[in-house]
Amino acid sequence: xxxxxxxxxxxxxxxxxxxxxxxxxxxxxxxxxxxxxxxxxxxxxxxxxxxxxxxxxxxxxxxxxxxxxxxxxxxxxxxxxxxxxxxxxxxxxxxxxxxxxxxxxxxxxxxxxxxxxxxxxxxxxxxxxxxxxxxxxxxxxxxxxxxxxxxxxxxxxxxxxxxxxxxxxxxxxxxxxxxxxxxxxxxxxxxxxxxxxxxxxxxxxxxxxxxxxxxxxxxxxxxxxxxxxxxxxxxxxxxxxxxxxxxxxxxxxxxxxxxxxxxxxxxxxxxxxxxxxxxxxxxxxxx
Length: 287
Fold this sequence. Notes:
Helix content: under 10%
Number of helices: 3
Distance between the termini: 31 Å
Number of strands: 19
Low-confidence stretches: 1-49, 51-57
Strand content: 15-25%
Largest sheet: 9 strands, parallel
Radius of gyration: 19 Å
Order of helices and strands: EEHHEEEEEEEEEEEEEEEEHE
Shape: globular
Oligomer: single chain
Structural class: mainly beta
């Protein structure tokens, strides 16, 4: 399902829902030997500890010096113990990956994080140490993904991107979303076509979005709970890409009351929002 009308590539980035990061180094290797010692992860699994406890308290710095693209049956052994990826991390079209526990040391990704079209992936468990993604984040078309709790400690995004987007789209079983501890988005946010989410609790720390916010086609969304701290959208002029820009779009959410969507628009307008908006087709019953 596609939402914006147009796409244009600039500096390796894509305007629109499908986000791609800046190009990264084309060659390189792991800067230091990556330990295969998974004892801390195994111990946590055996003890049945929480996701937060999965992340090792301390991992020696190890950098993977290029982008990494997962294979269909990847076990991520090449990234075990890695704390920094000097490129993109693309986890796409895997068939056996259930979670990402092998990535428990990962703290930073220089450019884009893509998690897309993974048949068996049920959670982002293993990303609890991830604090910084330098470019776009795209969580899309994962038919078994239940939650995004693994991103609970994400703190900063988009510092290496001119056109940052955080997109969560078309994840049929996703019940809860998370933007971690992020307070400000330097670009746009899209939450589109996720059939099972009922509220937006994972946005509770978010106060500002520099460009667009789209919330569309989420069939079970019943409230905008989680957006209470959001006071600013479209604070930065959008680039001219030759098609009309809708800065705030809340539409076609069949269980969301229209009055809730209008209330968010009114609150943003009171705080200075002057962008183009579309609030329509939200069919839930207003109190």
